[in-house]
Recover the amino acids of this structure.
């Protein structure tokens, strides 16, 4: 990370700041945004965090979460707030289309932009771009951003809690995308007062009964496995959405269960959300799901965790996915 004097000036002199992250915000999106907010507020900045859509309910307990503005719900307030901003900080995404209509609104606004992200193929959307696809999470990058600016002592237990949330969720509890540095970072956060078990409880032990029943339904009735392609799928229909009263965040993590089958290399979760069909792909090893999502479904993400949307029907999307498998057979069986 390189810090120009221009950037240092932006951070150390109070600005009117908007921190934005992507649609369907996950633990890394919300953790990095709130950590950055708490850091900047120590410099006297006026900060709002804005997301295009709602975040999963379990993250409500993170410090500052309930003040986040959601474009889908508070559109007019978001517009009003954004108009006054002179610094935009984009976290955990790297292209305007990941923030939809909010992106269309922000694009023509004046003001400086900083982007901090770890997804592949960034678009040039900021004056200061910190794009590191090798990083475990945007939260890792926020830690390095703050310490790189010589501000480690500003990392409070509250900031630690937000950062640890993104690190745990984006590494699947240190199962993938790790590096030596990330373990040192976590040790430092704990030394600075982070209560790590409270974060684990927030993420993993705060499910509702209906979520466990939904998981049971997915594994018993909605799972398909093609051993000849080392691929497994779970799908959910609109009817399932109604029957299980599925809300934001309720399907988070379901795709990962497929990877727990030893032979599975490619896992996909295809679900018919109320207005769109969403795909989530995960892989083990060298298999690049980012390339698959990008090439066939106009999506993206990381090599082992990517997503996309489809305007086709659920059935057509599933058929399209199945029809792709022969093309990847060599990679799948390698
Ligand atoms: P998930 O499957 O959990 O929604 O997303 C996995 C990863 O892929 C995340 O890093 C997410 O930001 C990214 N991702 C999900 N959906 C899309 C999409 O439609 N387009 C792009 N470019 N990335 C996506
Ligand atoms: Mn992330």
């Amino acid at each position: 990370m390189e810090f120009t004097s221009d950037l240092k000036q932006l951070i150390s002199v109070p600005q009117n700041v908007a921190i934005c992250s992507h649609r369907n915000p996950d633990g890394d999106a919300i953790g990095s945004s709130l950590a950055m907010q708490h850091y900047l507020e120590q410099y006297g900045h006026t900060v709002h965090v804005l997301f295009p859509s709602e975040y999963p309910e379990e993250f409500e307990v993170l410090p500052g979460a309930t003040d986040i503005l959601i474009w889908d719900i508070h559109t007019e307030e978001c517009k009003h707030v954004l108009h006054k901003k002179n610094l935009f900080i984009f976290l955990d995404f790297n292209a305007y289309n990941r923030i939809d209509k909010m992106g269309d609104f922000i694009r023509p606004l004046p003001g400086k932009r900083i982007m901090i992200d770890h997804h592949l193929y960034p678009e040039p959307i900021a004056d200061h771009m910190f794009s590191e696809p090798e990083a475990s999470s945007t939260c890792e990058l926020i830690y390095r951003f703050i310490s790189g600016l010589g501000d480690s002592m500003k990392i409070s237990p509250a900031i630690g809690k937000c950062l640890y949330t993104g690190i745990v969720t984006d590494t699947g509890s240190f199962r993938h995308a790790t590096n030596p540095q990330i373990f040192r970072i976590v040790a430092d956060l704990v030394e600075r007062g982070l209560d790590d078990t409270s974060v684990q409880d927030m993420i993993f032990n705060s499910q509702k009964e209906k979520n466990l029943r939904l998981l049971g339904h997915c594994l018993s009735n909605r799972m398909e496995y093609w051993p000849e392609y080392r691929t497994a799928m779970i799908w959910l229909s609109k009817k399932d959405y109604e029957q299980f009263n599925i809300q934001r965040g309720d399907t988070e993590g379901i795709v990962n269960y497929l990877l727990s089958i030893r032979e599975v290399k490619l896992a996909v979760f295809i679900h018919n959300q109320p207005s769109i069909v969403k795909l989530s792909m995960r892989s083990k090893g060298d298999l690049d799901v980012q390339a698959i999502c990008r090439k066939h479904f106009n999506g993206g993400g990381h090599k082992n965790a990517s997503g996309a949307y489809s305007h086709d029907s659920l059935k057509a999307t599933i058929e399209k996915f199945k029809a792709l498998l022969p093309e990847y057979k060599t990679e799948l069986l390698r």
